[in-house]
Task: structure prediction
Amino acid sequence: MSVVYAPPERGIVTLTLDAPANRNALSAGLVAGLAEALGDCGKDPDVRGIVLTHTGSTFCSGADLREPPDPAAFVGLLRQIVELPKPVVARVDGHVRAGGLGLLGACDMGVAGPGSSFALTEVRIGVAPAVISMPLLPRLDPSAAARYFLTGERFDAAEAARIGLVTAASTADVDAALAPLIDGLRKAAPQALAETKKLLTVRVLDAFDHHSDAVIALSARLFGSAEAEQGMAAFLERRERPWVL
Result:
């Protein structure tokens, strides 16, 4: 099972991405499993909030290049997180790459531990961060977005907090950084949380409303291109891409 559900503990459900063999890559199965688990949480009156975390040293490595999800299904998952009436908090203490940053960006809050690192690596394999731009661009500092979208550079938890990708970074204990966020959710009224979340997600949902079709088409076109074919083959075979100077 690629997503593990832990029953509510004082109103908080933990969903764990549990496919460490392929670094919790966004396969069709993982996307479907997470969407199902989130749907169940959204309908459960005993759930006040959701923690999204991971097993292994990687939170999410991006799209599974051997079993990629349908772009429309991935867009649907990201929108589901944004629209869910329960806040979703990411708990990250591992590597996050490419589409995994979109998953993180769709969450309402996030904490990153000392084992975290981040990179938008799409440009390095011949594609673009098309779908994930919708939840990320309204959240990120614009100059930082330009830098990391265009260069694919790796950055750490402190930088992720500085640019708005996560709420807090910890140099010692990720759960210590998570605790005040969870405590706050437990003290908040369910209706108030749901309505407040609607206020916070207006800009992101506007991006989904106006740009989903265009970014799905762009993603499909780029992933089907000769350049992407070369880049993905080089990545899977652990060799240098042909365009690297």
